[in-house]
Amino acid sequence: GNSVTQMEGPVTLSEEAFLTINCTYTATGYPSLFWYVQYPGEGLQLLLKATKADDKGSNKGFEATYRKETTSFHLEKGSVQVSDSAVYFCALSGANGFQKLVFGTGTRLLVSP
Amino acid sequence: DGGITQSPKYLFRKEGQNVTLSCEQNLNHDAMYWYRQDPGQGLRLIYYSQIVNDFQKGDIAEGYSVSREKKESFPLTVTSAQKNPTAFYLCATTGQGDEQFFGPGTRLTVL
Asked: What is the nearest CA distance from B56 to chain A, expressed in angstroms?
C-alpha cells in the first residue's frame, strides 16, 4: 500500500539557517504530494502541494519538488525563523479518485534565536 | 467566516463513559474525516464519509462510531470499548480538490 517516510526529529536550527526535511514515498499510480504544518495545540494547515512529477510547490519561503525518479518530496527553506518552529507532515493522496491522505509521522522543527 | 469547528477543545472522560466529539463545517464540502494523533505516530484515520448518510471505517475504527445525518456535521463517539482513548482528535474535510482542511482539534483525556 501507499506509505510516507519522513526523517525523524527534532530538527534543531539557529535562526537564518537552511532547512531540509526529507520525505520519501511509496505509491501506486500518480499521487499528489503535500506538506502540512502544525503549530502547538492546533490543527494542520496546508503549507504546499504538488500534483505531478517535477512540479514545485512553494509558500511562505518553503519549497518542495515532486521527484518521481527518487520518489521524494523534500521540504526546504533558505532561511528559517523562530516562528517556523512547528511539526511538519508530509502526505500523499491516493490515485483512486478519492482524497484519502496517507501521512508521515511528522518532523518537529525547533528554531532558536 | 468559512471553516471547520470542533468542540469541545478539551474533554475529560471517566473510565466506561461514552463521549461525543463535535465537528461542524460550513465549507459545503462533501467528504469528512476523523483522525487520531498520538505523539510520534502521525495521524491515523478513524472513519471517513464521502456523502451524507454514508461512512466507512478507516484504519483504527474499533471502539469508535460516527454518523453523517447532515452534510455539515460528522460527530465522533468514543465508546467505552476504546481502551486507550487519550489522544488529540482532528476532523478534516475535502471539497472538489484533493487537499484536506483541518479543524483545530479536540484533546481527549481519560481520568
From this structure: 11
In sequence order, which residues have a C-beta less than 8 Å from that of residue B39 and are 6 or more positions away? none
Q: Which is it for strands A11-14 and A107-112: parallel, antiparallel or unpaired?
A: parallel
Contact (CB<8Å) B42/A41: no
Burial of A99 (0-12, 13-18, 19+ CB in 10 A): buried
Q: Please state, in angstroms and as integers, the Cα–Cα distance from residue A23 to each residue in A13, A35, A75, A80, following that order.
A: 18, 10, 8, 18
The one-letter amino acid code at A113 reads P
Do A1 and A99 touch, CB atoms closer than 8 A?
A: no
- Minimal Cβ distance to A93: which of B33, B98, B102: B98
Q: Are B100 and B94 in contact (CB under 8 A)?
A: yes
Q: What is the pLDDT of residue A35?
A: 97
Interface contacts (A, B; CB < 8 Å): 49
CA–CA–CA angle A95, B23, B41 (5° rounding): 55
* Closest partner CB to B102 (pick from A32, A43, A106): A43
- Residues A69-96 have pLDDT tens digits of 999 999 999 999 999 999 999 999 875 5
Share of chain A above pLDDT 70, in %: 95
